[in-house]
Specification:
The structure holds 2 protein chains of 2 kinds. Chain A contains 17 helices and 20 strands. Chain A is an alpha+beta fold. Chain A folds into 3 domains: 7-132, Response regulator (Rossmann fold); 162-381, Phosphatase 2c, domain 1 (4-Layer Sandwich), CATH 3.60.40; 406-568, Histidine kinase-like ATPase, C-terminal domain (Heat Shock Protein 90). Chain A has a 5-stranded parallel beta sheet, sandwiched between helices. The longest helix of chain B has 13 residues, at 56-68. The chains are: A alpha+beta, B alpha/beta.
């Protein structure tokens, strides 16, 4: 019946008994190792590694119980059945045999049928144990490999998705080191014009499939943010990419925030994440709920990338989280939920940062600390002058190489005015001049001030004083959207002209638009008489242009602006800073 | 069985009922429920009256059903959700893709 040959150790000090048993077992087809007492048994066990051990209970030098204890220690993880051979029949003695690690008894005189049955039974048990421990080892090995692979993958991911400007003093975040394998991603990048772009995402599913989608999102986010694309452009690109690469049923819930600290403006898009919160300096909350389908579901032509604009002031704080926060569970099986977040934030005057309040709240609520691995939170403080760490740029090649004498004209017309921002393209052209590369921030600001002014006040005729009140702010942006649909016959034309001059170069930018212009001759800021309000160039925009450029000239009916920007090699070369 | 299917009286509406948690563990059963359905089926009702919880992989499964049922022309209604389930569906703005009653 037993097909496999076992190695069986027999220890008995009685030569006769040993001989009988040995003969019986050999006849069953097994191999026998003989020992004459306990000490001998332990020694032979160490040398020959038998599969099953038969021990006489009473032996000189070392008895069976003692030998059993040694053998079990030597066997370690292996299951080696130890069967006592005994003529003892006192219950107490039999119990002692079992306590010493024995697995069963065989009583003398021997019965061949019983011996065979017991050996077979213990062989089955032994093999089952082997299979189990082998599987267990395989599983631990797989798990170790998986963890190792994850940490390598994590390093690759980190190189693509570096922390951007997440370490800025006005950003607080919580993300587990392996959060990408829970499907959570968090990116932040400074924008060339100042300000920041932050993306928080949560892919469906866990593990590798969730992590894989994160890579292209990181590339798109950082690549486009650096080049000055708008948040809406970044969203469209991410959605299109994910729609293309993810199978149906996989998608990414996400929220994107574009923060402009100079204008005091947040633009928010939330598709499938829990409410984002803006906590005003006085503690009042504003909720920004999800208004869109998650990314990667809709085809590009149905995707809605319009961002909600919200006016903010220094002291306000933005808080975004993934659903891990809402789904934290306590030991009664209750969810933390939106109510939990509200409880944490609804304590005006506590002086606690909303971020700390929520993180602490979830920790206290959920019993399992492991759960904090599944949640990602980020908070952004609105400040006057955020210190954004400089993004490491490649060292500029020789400032003399590259194009220095060139001119170009670019005009966008009609519907394109609403669909497309020419800024990344224009910035790209300017930054081909090596000497301008370290000044990308200033150039972008100049171009975007000119462009936004031409578009919003020139073409669309939006009065900028609307933006000064909370009501007007919303009205401004809805009206902006509405008027963008009626831009027939309108255009904005940029003419860029770069020349070399001793020790540096000069960039001349002319921006013309089809609007009605404004009375620049009597404008206090243009004429240099200071103070006062005006429907166009009411405030910061014009001041910025004047401060950053060497000269600014208005022509025509005020719809033709020319600025001159001079740069020198000697100034802030190679320091990688924008200012 | 956490997922039960039945054909409505009109003979072309498949009703899929999900009991308990609608999450990744029901993936195969949910797929089987509509892939093995009668070929005359043109409309679907996902009945969530006894569904206590729904996660993002369930949202993914609903999208797979929508694809199976013809994508933009799919006729699927999601019915009788409790408030937690309803909230998850509306955070993800699934009312843009499904009739949620």
């Amino acid at each position: 019946m037993s097909q496999n040959i076992l190695r069986i150790l027999i220890a008995d000090d009685s030569d006769t008994d040993r001989l009988i048993l040995q003969a019986l077992i050999k006849r069953l087809g097994h191999e026998v190792i003989e020992a004459v007492d306990g000490l001998d048994a332990v020694k032979k066990f160490g040398e020959d590694h038998p599969d099953i051990v038969l021990l006489d209970a009473l032996m000189p030098r070392m008895d069976g119980m003692e030998a059993a204890r040694h053998i079990k220690v030597l066997a370690g993880e292996r299951l080696v059945p130890v069967i006592f051979l005994t003529s003892l029949s006192e219950t107490e003695d039999l119990v002692r045999c079992l306590e010493a690690g024995g697995d069963d008894f065989l009583t003398k005189p021997y019965n061949r049928v019983i011996i065979e049955a017991k050996i077979n039974a213990f062989d089955r048990m032994r093999r089952m144990h082997d299979t189990l421990s082998q599987q267990h080892q395989e599983i631990s090995e797989r798990n170790r490999q998986l963890l190792e692979e994850q940490s390598i993958a994590r390093r690759v991911f980190d190189n693509v998705a570096h922390t951007g400007c997440l370490d800025s003093p006005n950003i607080h975040y919580h993300a587990s080191p392996l959060s990408v394998f829970n499907g959570d991603v968090l990116f932040a990048s400074p924008l060339p014009a100042g300000g920041m772009l932050i993306f928080l995402g949560d892919f469906t599913g866990h593990g590798l499939p969730a992590a894989i989608g994160a890579m292209p999102v990181a590339e798109i986010f950082y690549g486009m943010a650096r080049k000055g694309f708008s948040g809406a452009d970044v969203l469209r690109e991410i959605n299109q990419k994910l729609k293309l690469i993810l199978p149906t049923g996989m998608f990414c819930c996400g929220a994107l925030v574009e923060a402009d600290f100079k204008l005091g403006q947040l633009r928010v898009w939330n598709g499938g994440l829990p409410e984002a919160w803006v906590i005003r300096a006085d503690g009042d909350p504003v909720l920004l709920p999800s208004r869109h389908l998650p990314l990667g579901i809709l085809p590009p032509e149905q995707f809605e990338s319009v961002m909600e604009a919200l006016q903010v002031w220094p002291g306000d704080r933005l808080l975004m989280m993934t659903d891990g926060v809402l789904e934290a569970t306590n030991d009664h099986g209750e969810l933390f939920g939106l109510a939990g977040v509200r409880r944490c934030l609804d304590r005006p005057g506590s002086g606690r940062h909303p971020f700390d309040a929520v993180v602490e709240g979830v920790r206290q609520f959920s019993v399992k600390t492991a759960e904090s691995d599944d949640l990602t939170l980020v908070a952004l403080d609105i400040t006057d002058q955020p210190e954004v760490p400089a993004v490491q740029e490649q060292p500029p090649p020789s400032a003399l190489a590259g194009p220095t004498e060139w001119r170009c004209e670019y005009e966008i017309r009609e519907r394109t005015l609403g669909d497309f921002s020419p800024l990344p393209l224009l910035l790209h052209i300017c930054l081909e001049v090596p000497g301008l590369r370290t000044r990308g921030g200033e150039i972008y600001t100049l171009l975007s001030e000119l462009y936004n002014n031409a578009l919003e006040h020139g073409v669309l005729q939006l009065p900028s004083e609307w933006k000064h009140s909370a009501d007007g702010f919303g009205r401004y942006y809805s009206e902006r959207q509405a008027r963008l649909a009626r831009v027939d016959g309108h255009y904005i034309r940029f003419s860029l002209h770069h020349t070399r001059k001793p020790g540096g170069g000069r960039l001349r930018v002319v921006c013309e638009d089809s609007g009605t212009g404004f009375d620049f001759r009597n404008h206090p800021l243009v004429s240099g008489q200071g103070g006062g309000d005006s429907p166009r160039y009411a405030g910061r925009g014009l001041l910025l242009l004047k401060r950053l450029s060497n000269n600014i000239t208005f022509r025509g009916r005020g719809n033709h602006v020319e600025i001159v920007y001079d740069w020198n090699f000697s100034e802030h070369q190679g320091d990688g800073d924008d200012r | 069985m956490p997922i039960q299917t039945s054909l409505a009286e009109d003979g072309k509406t498949l009703v899929i009922r999900i009991e308990g948690r609608f999450d990744f563990s029901t993936h195969q059963a949910f797929r089987d429920s509509y892939e093995h359905a009668d070929s005359k089926v043109t409309n679907y009702i996902v009945d969530l009256s006894d569904t206590t919880y729904l996660d993002s992989s369930a949202l993914g499964m609903l999208l797979l059903l929508r694809d199976h049922a013809g994508g933009d022309s799919a006729r699927i209604s999601i019915e009788n959700c409790n408030s937690d389930v309803r909230r998850i569906l509306s955070i993800s703005n699934f009312e843009q893709l499904f009739a949620i009653k």
